[in-house]
Amino acid sequence: MECFHCLQPVPRGVNLSVEYKGSEKPVCCAGCQAVAETIIEHRLHAYYEHRDISQLQETPVLPDELNDLNLYDHPDLQKEFVRHEGDGTEVATLTIENITCGACGWLIERELMRLKGIHKAIVNVTSRRLQVSWSPEELKLSNILRALAGIGYKALPFQANEAEQQYARQRKSYIKRLGVAGIATMQVMMIAFGLYFGVVSDLSPDLQRFLWGVSLVFATPVILYSAQPF
Ligand SMILES: [Zn+2]
Ligand SMILES: [Zn+2]
């Protein structure tokens, strides 16, 4: 027996169901039951007829996780990924982990448009992104995330992920620059030691000029490459 909502096998001993078109359909857990009931109650059951069942759903968000969603209302966190528009609305791009097909996109857009204060909800199924805009006086971001969780989708701020990746890339490039600076500076110093101590008198002026030239060659990448971001 498989779960009406997530299509996973219903564990033995679990005896939960939802009513769908006049008959009882088995579900695997309280999470799937809540999600299926919300979808049916909100008259979005067309989702079940149009979804791509070759793609398995992930287990929906459990109620415990929903408490943490209030964190996303904090201004410090929001300034990373929420944009304030001139007309007073706020815009955010969210990544939704478990979008599997066009019916998911349809379901998400419909469910969000039910909320008072939502201006726009556009899902890109391929990139699993949701672009959403809302009036902050009427609605909080956590309300949006909670509505998504209610129909079984887990959303994360997209910009925060992106910023993290960018930070990692930037840090790598800094380390590379520092590495070049370290190696090249060592070469310059070794040549300088040779020029200052002992050997100077033994060197012909031509060789001295050559060594100065070499140290210039090593110093140039330090200045041009490593010092570039400073
Ligand atoms: Zn299930
Ligand atoms: Zn789907």
**What is the C-alpha radius of gyration, as a whole number of Å?**
30 Å
Q: Do you know the CATH architecture of the largest domain?
A: 2-Layer Sandwich
Q: Tell me, what's the shape?
A: elongated
Helix content: 40-55%
Described by its quaternary structure, the protein is single chain
Structure ligands: zinc ion
Please give the CATH class of the largest domain.
Alpha Beta
- Mean pLDDT across every amino acid position: 82
CATH fold-level assignment of the largest domain: Alpha-Beta Plaits
Task: Give a topology summary.
Blueprint: E1 16-20, E2 23-27, H1 30-41, H2 46-50, H3 75-78, E3 82-84, E4 90-96, H4 102-113, E5 118-124, E6 129-134, H5 141-150, E7 155-157, H6 158-196, H7 205-226
Antiparallel strand pairs: 1-2, 3-4, 4-6, 4-7, 5-6
Helix pairs in contact: 6-7
Bound molecules: zinc ion (2 copies).
Can you walk through the features of this model?
By secondary structure, this protein is α+β, with helices and mostly antiparallel strands. The chain has two domains: 100 residues, Alpha-Beta Plaits; 65 residues. It is 45% helix and 16% strand. Strands 3, 4, 5, 6 and 7 form a five-stranded antiparallel sheet that branches. Helix 6 runs antiparallel to helix 7. The longest helix is centred in the C-terminal third of the chain and has 39 residues. The N and C termini lie far apart (64 Å). It binds zinc ion (2 copies). One zinc ion (ZN) binds next to loops. The site of one zinc ion has 6 residues, from helix 4.
